[in-house]
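S.,

Sequence below, as promised.
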Amino acid sequence: MISRYSRKELTNIWSEENKYKIWLDVEVAAAQAMEKYKIIPKGVSKIVKKKGRINVKRIHQIESKVKHDVIAFLTSITEKAGLQARYLHQGMTSSDVLDTSFNIQLVQSGKILINDIDKILSVLKKKALKHKLTPCIGRSHGIHAEPITFGLKLASYYEEFKRNRRRLQSAIYEISTCAISGAVGTFANIDPRVEVYVAKKLKLRPEPISTQVIPRDRHAYYFSMLGIIAGSIERIATEIRHLQRSEVYELQEFFSKDQKGSSAMPHKKNPILSENLTGLARMVRSYVTPALENIALWHERDISHSSVERNIGPDSNITLDFALVRLANLLDKMIVYPKKMMTNINLTKGLIFSQEMMLELTKAGFPREKSYRIIQKHSKDSYSKNIDLINLIKKDKLITSKISNQKIDNVFKFSKHLKNVNYIFRRVFKK
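The prediction came back faster than expected:
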């Protein structure tokens, strides 16, 4: 991942130093268990923990010769810890260390992502309550439909991110497993109690049944959840981009005093943050497919998944973390233009009340199809002739013979469209 779209909290998790530290934690925990069950001499874990030092450069030097990262790691630890380190890794396979450690990194990342989502939820709630009754036009297919409130838009995003939080918590639980089961998962050369001990020590659960690897459906689930969250980010970003268009201009990204929008056109204030989020979301979603394809490995294990995970592990988590933090800041600082929202509501000269007028005709005894045709004709005339729909309705003697002008006036008030906003907010925010 490039530094431009990275935050230190996440890059630290995926650093080589942290990776090897976790490897050492796994090996020490396994040694402690083996000591407890009298498989290796006492004191090994203590010596390794005290004297074992992570030297990334030295590990790389050894790996360049032996062409095996775990062996290189164990050799470097032995050089520091001395002869007692020979008892490390007894009955274990490389995947016991790699998979358990990888899952720990995913859990560490997932917890930070949960915090990121919590910040978004906090901002969305604050903004939604502020704009609970700020009228704006609802659009379907990009066309003006009926009035809603800007608060309802934000409440919808809030509810979606509540679901995202639950999904991510579930994915973190799914990935919180440990495998210390040996070459093909049979515990042939290692006591199953070692796995139970290590899992408890590292706050994981023993994998019920592994082969040489932890089954990759768990990882596919985790990365799929990240992809869904990315989709939610893009949903909001796309809305902001559309609402900032010059001809709409209901919203604007915060634009700092010395910020420049275009190298050529000084007037430009481009929605660069939401456009950036759209691109980052695409990247995170692109990691889902290879994660799904990792499920089908040959027999008890191959390493076709390894190169994939070395890329998507850090990149997906780091990118999503950056995007979530950027989205929280964008939402917190965005500028809302309620007056322009009201202007846009009135833009179509009452066409947005066509459904309500049609329903009023049905209440007056007109068949629904006939009511639809009548209002559709007046709507077309309103649009083509640039005349308020209400004026055309009031000139229609067939309509006015059944419906009073007062009732017609009531139809063309958007208050009805806001009458259940409080009800919806109570469902979303539980108050």
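The first helix runs from residue 8 to 13.

Coffee later?
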